[in-house]
Amino acid sequence: MPVLQARGVRLGYDKRAVLDGIDLDIEAGTVTTLVGANGCGKSTLLKAFGRLLDPSAGTILLDGEPLRKSRSRAVARRLAILPQSPVAPAGTSVRDLVMRGRNPHQSWARPWTPADDAVVTRVLADTGLAQVADRAVTELSGGQRQRAWIALVLAQEAPTLLLDEPTTYLDLAHQLEVLRLVRRTNRQAGTTVVMVLHDLGLAARYSDRLVALGEGGVLADGKPAEVLRPELLLRAFGLRARVVPDPVTGTPLVLPEEDESAAEAREQNPE
After folding, report:
1. Which InterPro entries match (predicted)?
2. Which residues contact 201 (CB under 8 A, 6 or more apart)?
3. Which residues contact 182 (CB under 8 A, 6 or more apart)?
4. CATH no., domain 2-88+158-268
5. Which of 15, 87, 193, 266 is the most exposed place for a label (fewest CB within 10 A)?
6. pTM (predicted TM-score)
């Protein structure tokens, strides 16, 4: 059974639709990445899945139930979201930030426990933040801050993670570390992951499925090799490119066909 479902969903801002009539299922235990040009609705759809944006039409379902009718704490135990550019309150340490991921599991009948401490300690180690755990989040580099926010959602231990550009501010080595961590969490814990990524090569390498958005809807949906085709890249991104197997993983690798001078010439003399 799908974990998340969009049925006839219309999403937008100020009465302007970005996506209209979206029907999409997110299967349990998979890594799904939303791709597409800037402004196509990737983050908008992720916000709707995370209950940060209400559809103007249609329904979002979580585990078969209307998302809007579920209680916030119950949703937070089943769904964790990392939005774009989150901001921590001044003076918050990395450890304090990560500890907030345990809030959905707390209640008057269940205070903080040694098990919560163990989760926080493990997540800090997994994200490479143990050595800076007592520093203020605002004192960290951009890459460390991003990893701190990822640690927060991992500490939540929700069976479904929504990650909006989780590799923002990270150099390539740390991008790979984060995506390996996401993939490991998926494989070892069976966590369902929905991500937004801009790097198509990394999206193909670390995803079971790609959903390409554009023109107000879904342009393509399937395995990376089924989605990343030259005709789709031209339609979704206006990019003339070849798709070849990655020599390391065999997953699709996108190679732009034009150098800068050829692209400028085509723009000056369109067909």
Report:
1. AAA+_ATPase, ABC_transporter-like_ATP-bd, ABC_transporter-like_CS, Glyco_hydro_18_chit_AS, P-loop_NTPase, Siderophore_ABC-ATPase
2. 246, 251, 252, 253, 254
3. 31, 161, 163, 166, 193, 195, 206
4. 3.40.50.300
5. 15
6. 0.89
